[in-house]
Specification:
Low-confidence stretches: none
Structural class: alpha/beta
Bound molecules: S-adenosylmethionine
Order of helices and strands: HHEHEHEEHEHHHEEEEEEEHE
Shape: globular
Strand content: 15-25%
C-alpha cells in the first residue's frame, strides 16, 4: 500500500490541475521568455516550479529529454522550443487530471506558437519512483519542485530511477527548495505542507550528497535564491524558517577516484610572478585568470597555503567552464 503522504500529494495536485493556483509555488525566478515563444495564460498560472530546469547549454546535439512531474507543462513547452521534434520531450506524471490539464495547455500553445505541435510532447502516466522509461535512454532528465516532497527513502528511489534512465554523461537537471535550518518534525510530518513543497526540504549539502551517493560524478549548483518564510504566526514553528530554492545539474560522469566534483561557484586565481601555477593534478592557473574549480580542488589548493593563489567563496551561480 502507498504511504499516506504520496496519496495526499496526488490529491493536492489533482486539485491544482482542476483549479490553477498562481501562488502555489511562488518564485522570483523569471520565466524564460524567448523569441517566438508564447506561454498560454493558464499554463503560466500553473507554473508550480521553484526555479528553471531549462538551460540551452544542456540542449545541444539533439538530446532526448525526460520531464518528471509535468504540472501545467510550461517547462516541457520551453524544452520543446529547443528540441522541435515529434516525441522529443517525454513528460511523466502520476496524476491523470494534471496530464489532462497539460494536454489542453499544449493544444492552446499550438494555437499561439506556429512552430509548436502537441506531438512534440509525449505524455505518459507514471510514477517518479518507478519510471516507465527504458534504461540508459535519456540525455537530459528534469524535475522541478517534486523531489523535495519525497521522504528520504523515496527521494533515493526517485534519484536512482533518474540515474537508471540516463545515458552515460546524461544530465539530471533539478530545481527544489532547500533549507539550512532544522525543519521541525511536526512540519515535516504535515502531509499537506510537504505536498506544497514547504516542509520536505533538506540542507543543500545533504541534498547534494543524496545525488552524489547515487553515482553522479559531477554536480553543478547553478542558482540559489530566497524562496519562502515559515513564520510562527502562520505555521506551527517556534522560530522563523527561511527556505531557499536551488537549480542543480548532476552529470552521469564516472565517479572520480577521489570523490565527486561539486561546483558551487568557487574560483581560483593565481597572482604570482611565474608563467603559471600547475598543481600537477590537471589544473594550470595562468596569472590573474580566474579558473572555476570544484569544491574538492578548492580545498586541495587551499591546504597548500600559498600566498599567490586566491580561492573565492562559493557563489552558488556556476554556469560552466570548470576545471575537471
Ligand atoms: C510542484 S508540482 C511541479 C510541476 C512542474 N514541474 C512545474 O514546475 O510547474 C509537482 C508535479 O509532480 C506531479 N507528481 C506528484 N507526485 C508524483 C509522482 N509520484 N510521480 C510523478 N509525478 C508526480 C504532480 O502531479 C505535479 O504535476
Amino acid at each position: 500500500m502507498q504511504q499516506g503522504y504520496l496519496e495526499t500529494t496526488k490529491n493536492v495536485y489533482k486539485e491544482a490541475a482542476e483549479n490553477p493556483n498562481v501562488g502555489l509555488c511562488c518564485t522570483t525566478t523569471p520565466v524564460w521568455q524567448l523569441p517566438g515563444l508564447k506561454i498560454p495564460k493558464r499554463m503560466l498560472e500553473m507554473n508550480y516550479g521553484c526555479g528553471s530546469t531549462v538551460h540551452p547549454r544542456d540542449l545541444v546535439n539533439n538530446p532526448k529529454i525526460l520531464y518528471v512531474g509535468v504540472g501545467g507543462g510550461m517547462e516541457l513547452l520551453q524544452f520543446s522550443y529547443f528540441s522541435r521534434q515529434i516525441g522529443g520531450v517525454t513528460g511523466v506524471d502520476i496524476v491523470d487530471e494534471m496530464l489532462e490539464a497539460s494536454r489542453q495547455n499544449f493544444l492552446e500553445a499550438e494555437k499561439q506558437n506556429p512552430w509548436f505541435r502537441s506531438e512534440f510532447v509525449n505524455l505518459v502516466k507514471g510514477d517518479a519512483l518507478h519510471l516507465p522509461i527504458e534504461d540508459s535512454s535519456i540525455d537530459v532528465a528534469a524535475q522541478n519542485c517534486l523531489f523535495n516532497i519525497f521522504k528520504q527513502d523515496d527521494l533515493k528511489k526517485a534519484l536512482q530511477e533518474m540515474y537508471r534512465v540516463l545515458k552515460p554523461r546524461g544530465r539530471l537537471v533539478l530545481s527544489d527548495p532547500t533549507c539550512e535550518q532544522d525543519m521541525p518534525q511536526n512540519l515535516q510530518d504535515d502531509e499537506r505542507l510537504r505536498a506544497l513543497c514547504l516542509s520536505g526540504s533538506l540542507p543543500l549539502k545533504e541534498y547534494i550528497k543524496m545525488i552524489t551517493d547515487m553515482g553522479f560524478g559531477t554536480v553543478e549548483i547553478r542558482a540559489k535564491r530566497p524562496y519562502r518564510i515559515l513564520d510562527p504566526e502562520n505555521y506551527e514553528t517556534a522560530e522563523l524558517i527561511f527556505i531557499e530554492s536551488v537549480e542543480v545539474c548532476a552529470i552521469k560522469d564516472p565517479m572520480p577516484e577521489d570523490g565527486p566534483c561539486v561546483f558551487t561557484g568557487k574560483t581560483a586565481i593565481y597572482y604570482g610572478t611565474d608563467e603559471c601555477f600547475d598543481d600537477e593534478k590537471g589544473h594550470v592557473l595562468l596569472p590573474n585568470q580566474p579558473l572555476a574549480v570544484c569544491d574538492k580542488t578548492a580545498g586541495a589548493l587551499k591546504v597548500l597555503n600559498r600566498n599567490d593563489v586566491f580561492i573565492s567563496e562559493s557563489t552558488y551561480f556556476y554556469d560552466g567552464g570548470g576545471c575537471c
